[in-house]
Design brief:
CATH architecture of the largest domain: 3-Layer(aba) Sandwich
Shape: globular
Number of helices: 15
Structural class: alpha/beta
Strand content: 15-25%
Number of domains: 2
Radius of gyration: 22 Å
Strand order of the largest sheet: 2-8-7-6-5-3-4
CATH topology of the largest domain: Aspartate Aminotransferase, domain 2
Length: 400
């Protein structure tokens, strides 16, 4: 049965999309958990001392992650920027106000080439926003500890390590070894763990700072969570007096992050996985009967404790392509947005983590009906679809 919850989107002139892409910023990230909704509603009408609220958040972050301290910022991307900035300035307010001019500071930041991802913007840009210089390590598919050690100089301020499905998943330096090489020469390590479940493991493996999105698996309002060693967290927090001012987070974001971290500890994760598994089994059974669709359940590529459904589209049998089916689903009624990051390889992914009650059945019906409707019909090339997407972006706020 479908949910009878009120839907504000039509009143805002928006389509009522169904998200099976995952915790994507472009779709609003996640369904915010009730505890955070209630906390945000309650704090919005009150005045608070922001730095005291930040101090309370630090306590909650420390409890949840095992870190010495933590702070909240506008997003995980902002968290990377202020973390890099903090590694360059320390708690020196004069240097903080000097950024992005890094004269007189260590200003080089190391990152493996295979970790130079694009998550809607390049990770290198998040680093450069602080004034730092990006120093690539290794090649896209091959990086070794000696590559990392060879790039460390007296100008090295920090190293960034990215955990993401966008990153290359072979031929990279493992985190604990990455940290060991950096620490041997006094270089702090920042982990970009935007969409990761593990709130403790990256720090336990040696990271000095770990940065998360509050608005992804945690299910909070948009915010970034920085956790780690107290001096570095303090230096990152103090960027609010400098370049971090434009990345500040409001009382609702801080209070919401506190609420979701508390709720995370009490969440029945086994029950969540069971609900997701039932969706995956439903889809696998339904799509196995559709000509040309090959559904299979696959694990998360970064080790998060969840599975997704991979739908291979065999063009000769489906008489359409994976990208044509994904585009038709996005244009449907209701629109179904799949994870199509690697659609050129002939498949897309379905993620059940952001479904409201009854939507799994709607997704099954939509994919089955759409595959039948477009079967054998001419479809645009992948290049044409990408061109249309690019042109639509550049035409904003006009609609093509």
């Amino acid at each position: 049965m479908t949910s009878n919850r009120p839907d504000i989107r039509p009143r805002l002139g928006l389509r009522s999309v169904i998200n099976v892409s995952g915790t994507m910023t472009s779709l609003g990230a996640s369904i915010v958990v009730p505890e955070a909704v209630q906390t945000v509603e309650a704090v919005l009408t009150e005045f608070v001392e922001i730095n005291e609220l930040h101090r309370r958040a630090s306590e909650e972050i420390a409890r949840a992650t095992g870190a010495e301290a933590g702070c909240i910022t506008a997003s995980c991307s902002a968290g990377v920027t202020i973390s890099v900035a903090g590694c360059m300035t320390g708690a020196d307010l004069a240097r903080i106000e000097q950024l992005p001019d890094t004269a007189g500071m260590k200003n080089e930041v190391l990152i493996q080439v295979g970790h130079m991802v694009h998550y809607g913007a390049p990770i290198e840009q998040a680093i450069r926003l602080s004034g730092a210089k990006v120093v690539p390590v290794g090649t896209s598919t091959y990086a070794q500890p000696y590559h990392l050690a060879g790039k460390i100089t007296e100008r090295t301020a920090a190293a960034v390590y990215v955990v993401s499905h966008h990153a290359v998943h072979y031929g990279q330096i493992e985190l604990s070894e990455f940290c060991a090489v950096c620490h041997a020469q006094g270089v702090p390590v920042i982990v970009d763990a935007a969409s990761e479940y593990d709130l403790r493991g990256f720090l336990a493996k040696g990271a000095d700072l770990a940065v998360y999105s509050a608005h992804k698996f945690l299910g909070g309002p948009t915010a970034g969570i920085v956790a780690g060693r107290k001096p570095l967290v303090r230096a990152a927090f103090l960027q609010n007096c400098g370049i971090g001012r434009g990345m500040k987070v409001g009382k609702e974001g801080i209070a919401g992050a506190i609420a979701v971290l508390d709720a995370w500890a009490a969440r029945d994760h086994a029950a969540v996985r069971a609900r997701e598994r039932s969706c995956l089994e439903l889809w696998r059974e339904r799509f196995a009967a559709v000509p040309g669709l090959r559904p299979s359940i696959v694990p998360d590529p970064t080790g998060n404790p969840l599975d997704r459904l991979k739908v291979d589209v065999v063009e000769a049998e489906a008489r359409t392509t994976a990208w044509a089916l994904a585009a038709a689903l996005a244009a449907g009624d209701p629109p179904v947005i799949v994870r199509d990051h690697e659609v050129e390889h002939g498949y897309f992914i379905l993620d059940p983590c952001n479904l409201h009650p009854g939507e799994a059945e709607v997704v099954a019906d939509q994919i089955t009906a759409t595959a039948k409707r477009i079967r054998g019909k001419p479809s645009p090339s992948l290049q044409e679809l990408e061109r249309r997407r690019y042109e639509a972006l550049l035409a904003w706020p006009d609609r093509l």
